[in-house]
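hey so u asked for the seq, here:
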Amino acid sequence: MPLVSILSELQRGARERWAVPLFDTADMQATDGMLAAAEERRAPCIIAMYSAQFARPNARAQAEYIKVRAREASVPISFMLDHGTSMEVCMQALVAGCTDVMYDGSSLSYEENVANTRTIVMAAHAVGVAVEAEIGHVGRATDYAEIGASRKGYSDPAMVERFVADTGIDILAIAIGTAHGAYAKGVTPQIDVDLLREIRARVDLPLVMHGGTGSSEQQFRQVVANGISKINIATDLFLNAGQALVDRAQEPNPRYFDMTAAAQAAFQERCTYFLDVFGTSGKADS
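ran it, structure tokens below
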């Protein structure tokens, strides 16, 4: 199956109330585990490179590996830029063959965010690539005490409606109470489902929840039921795989290939869990 833009799957998920996960990859073991989970569960899936990865010497090689492996898959796979921090890196991603891109201008002024996003939309749409952008700002989990207490960065529904009209984007990331990274021990995100419902009522395009790590299964199911059709997962996967490597290293005579196999298996197992929870499993064949 060729690489695809995930937009049509997100639109279907929005109608049918299921969500597609975006999994950030870092190497072959992560990518292979993600693809194995998608194949096993017959699920559409997004595999992403984070913005900073495009500055690394192996960026082109990693992009080519993802594309080759995705083309071999029998389920829809998108190759996406996650959190493009500049117009330049978004253009790099288009040249590298990403089928979807996310531009994150959420820390800029509204006017600058809109201007940059519109430029990226024009370039991406010219080559058949869908664009995600963010309004509001999803912060870091290490700052969550401040974020949660002050509702810092939460998306404003009126601003959301204006942003969508001003930019022509295809997919919208919103801030509703989650944060990027790992929360402090004992802290769980407080997701504003009422805010999500209000935003869902104002705009008719796929909505995205970033900062999926740390949310409960119940919270995932609740946001999907109320309009989220894409959820980003990264930290959870890397923490889980890291622990699998630690565990394997403590066994007798650990070998290199045992370690790489353990990493791939850990990614596959955890990605399978999210595909099941988000309702994505089986959707490639429906």
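The radius of gyration is 18 Å. DSSP finds eleven helices and eight strands in the chain.
lmk if thats what u needed
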